[in-house]
Structure formats: structure tokens, C-alpha cells
């Protein structure tokens, strides 16, 4: 099968978040997709299949090296990039059908790709989850939760300095932990994302986390247009917008490699 390695939320290779992308002609068994994702050993591998009679619609699934995930931003961006750049898709927009409902990706005039994702506003937790401070090695100002925990710090330096204990983070009953703080120099907020529970110790740039971050920071800063940066070692920039119960998450993508996977149902 054809295979692409794409750096999402990046304009040059070796930055952003690498994703594997497998365009399929027909669905594969989930067990085989999980094996491929484990072999790729990237944060996510995406698999998409065209919907019959709908040339701009595809069924999309994402797998970490350990589990199937319900929502992934960077591998969705990477999948759209493959369609627009390598597979001859000429339309301005593609729709992926997923566990989280329809996800539209629009190609902008400057080459950026915009994800239309669900907004997942986090709810304040009056008591910090047991073990969170030890897991992060620091005490956040506030803790909120949606699919992931959201730990809010006062400064970018604090988020950058975190040295998480991944075993303790994996013991928390959430997909992942987002650490965030106000940004500077035109960046509204920064973040890091840790998800060892699903096989991703630190994710370089996490689109799905911004489904939580955008409504939080939009309310806190009283603005709907936001610039974000994930300050992992690879780093990545995101252009964000809150639209009611949806969020727009925009970024660039670049192909690192393209080839074939020599596996199939008889492997």
C-alpha cells in the first residue's frame, strides 16, 4: 500500500508533528492497522478510505502505536495534505468521517490547511487529581478537564521547564495531560501535551488538544482569533479560531518521505 510520512504544523522537514498516512482503496482490519501504527512508531498513523459516490468524502481512522484514538488533528492535517499534494485532489475542501463526526479540511490560498473540529470546553476541577503535581513535577494554578486534563501555569518558562514523570501521567484516568500558559511576542498561548497512557510520551504538536485549548483561551482572553505554539522540542505553530461549538485549527504541512508498505492481509 502507498505510504506517506508528513510533518504536520510545519513548513520544513524535522519540525512539527510527524504522521504516517495510508490511503486505502478498501478498509483494513483494525488489528492490521494497529500493527502498522506500532511498526511506524509515530504518534499517529492515519488510514482513509474513499466513500462510494462522494468524491470529496473519506472515512478516516487514527492509531497511536498502542491504541485507536477518537480524534487527532495533526494526522488529519497530514491526510488532507496527501490528498491535495500527492493524490490529485483538486477541490478546495475535503470531509473526513470519523469517530468524532465529520471533520472538514479547507485548503487556503496561502497553502495553509484549516481543520474544522469540535470545540471541547474544559470544566474546572475544584480538587486537583491525585498525583498530578508529582506527575508534572510542578503545581499548576488551575486544573480543568475534558477528554484530557488541562493544567494551567502562569508562564511559558514554567511549561518549558516541566520534566514529567510519564509513568505517573499514564496512571491518571485521562487520555493525556495538556500543560499551558500565556504566550509572548504575538503568540496568545503555548502548550505541551503528554499522553503516555496511549503510547505517546510527549506529542510534538497536538491538534486535538486545541479543541480544548481554544475555547479555554478564547474565554480567558476575550478574543476568538488566537495564535498558538506548542513548545515541544520540535515545536509547531497553529492559527486558531473559536466558532461557537466548533474550532478552526490551521497549519502547514510538508512531506518527508513517500513509498510503499509491503504488507497485506496475507502478511
TrEMBL record:
On whether Transcription regulation is a keyword of this UniProt record, the answer is no
Q: Name one Pfam family in it.
A: PhzC-PhzF
Q: Which InterPro entries match?
A: Phenazine_PhzF-like
Keywords attached to this Swiss-Prot or TrEMBL record, sorted alphabetically, are: Isomerase
Annotated TM spans: none
Query: Which Gene3D superfamilies does the UniProt entry name for this protein?
Result: Diaminopimelate Epimerase, Chain A, domain 1
SUPFAM superfamilies xrefs: Diaminopimelate epimerase-like (SSF54506)
Q: Family per UniProt?
A: Belongs to the PhzF family.
Which NCBIfam families did the record assign? PhzF_family (TIGR00654)
Q: What is the protein's given name? A: PhzF family phenazine biosynthesis protein
Amino acid at each position: 500500500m502507498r505510504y506517506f510520512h508528513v510533518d504536520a504544523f510545519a513548513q520544513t522537514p524535522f519540525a512539527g508533528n510527524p504522521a504516517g498516512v495510508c490511503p486505502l482503496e478498501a478498509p483494513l482490519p483494525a488489528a492490521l492497522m494497529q500493527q502498522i501504527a506500532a511498526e511506524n512508531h509515530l504518534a499517529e498513523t492515519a488510514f482513509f478510505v474513499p466513500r462510494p459516490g462522494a468524491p470529496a468524502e473519506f472515512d478516516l481512522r487514527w492509531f497511536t502505536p498502542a491504541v485507536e484514538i477518537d480524534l487527532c488533528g495533526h494526522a488529519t492535517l497530514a491526510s488532507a495534505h496527501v490528498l491535495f499534494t500527492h493524490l490529485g485532489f483538486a477541490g478546495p475542501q475535503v470531509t473526513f468521517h470519523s469517530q468524532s463526526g465529520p471533520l472538514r479540511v479547507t485548503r487556503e490560498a496561502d497553502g495553509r490547511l484549516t481543520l474544522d473540529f469540535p470545540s471541547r470546553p474544559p470544566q474546572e476541577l475544584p480538587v486537583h487529581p491525585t498525583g498530578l503535581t508529582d506527575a508534572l513535577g510542578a503545581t499548576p494554578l488551575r486544573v480543568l478537564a475534558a477528554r484530557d486534563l488541562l493544567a494551567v501555569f502562569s508562564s511559558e518558562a514554567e511549561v518549558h521547564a516541566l520534566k514529567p514523570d510519564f509513568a505517573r501521567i499514564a496512571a491518571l484516568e485521562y487520555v493525556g495531560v495538556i500543560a499551558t500558559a500565556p504566550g509572548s511576542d504575538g503568540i496568545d498561548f503555548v502548550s505541551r501535551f503528554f499522553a503516555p497512557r496511549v503510547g505517546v510520551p510527549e506529542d510534538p504538536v497536538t491538534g486535538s488538544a486545541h479543541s480544548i485549548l481554544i475555547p479555554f483561551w478564547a474565554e480567558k482572553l476575550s478574543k476568538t482569533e488566537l495564535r498558538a505554539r506548542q513548545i515541544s522540542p520540535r515545536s509547531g505553530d497553529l492559527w486558531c479560531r473559536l466558532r461557537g461549538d466548533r474550532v478552526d485549527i490551521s497549519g502547514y504541512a510538508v512531506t518527508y518521505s513517500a513509498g510503499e508498505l509491503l504488507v497485506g492481509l496475507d502478511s
